[in-house]
Amino acid sequence: QVQLVESGGGLVQPGGSLRLSCAAPRFTFSTYTMMWYRRAPGKERELVTDIGTGGSTNYADSVKGRFTISRDNLKNTVHLQMSNLKPEDTAVYYCHGGLLWGQGTQVTVSS
Predict the structure, then answer these.
(1) N or C: where does the chain have the smaller number of CB atoms within 10 Å of the terminal CB?
(2) pLDDT at residue number 95
(3) Are 86 and 14 in contact (CB under 8 A)?
């Protein structure tokens, strides 16, 4: 069964960094725009960033200048580098592409 698998979440102090990864060995990444969403407690799901098949990127205003999305089509992976993390970045982060969603990875920013 094809699925997306996220990893890299965890607990980090404000100002810290984390790198999330999304892998799908049997999913043809190269033909899809890949996205990272997040859902914070008590809030709606939010589109954080996306990366097109040609590498073009878009970011939510709340993460511009702090988050960077990248993709490796040969390895069927997409990454989200998060820097200068803030408590309001605390959420479950989901990878999405085509009709597929990952199971989510928890990111907690707290001192």
Answers:
(1) N
(2) 96
(3) yes
| 87 conformational bin, left if phi > 0, alpha if psi -120 to 50, beta if neither | alpha
Task: Confirm if 23 and 3 have CB atoms less than 8 A apart.
Answer: no
Residue partners of 71: CB distance under 8 A and separation at least 6? 29, 34, 51, 55, 77, 78, 79
Q: What is the pLDDT of residue 1?
A: 61
Higher pLDDT, 2 or 66: 66
- Please tell me the distance from the alpha carbon of residue 85 to that of residue 53, in angstroms, as a whole number: 27
Q: Which residue has the higher pLDDT, 55 or 25?
A: 55
Q: Point out which residues pair with 27 in neighbouring strands.
A: none
* Whether 94 contacts 84, CB under 8 Å: no
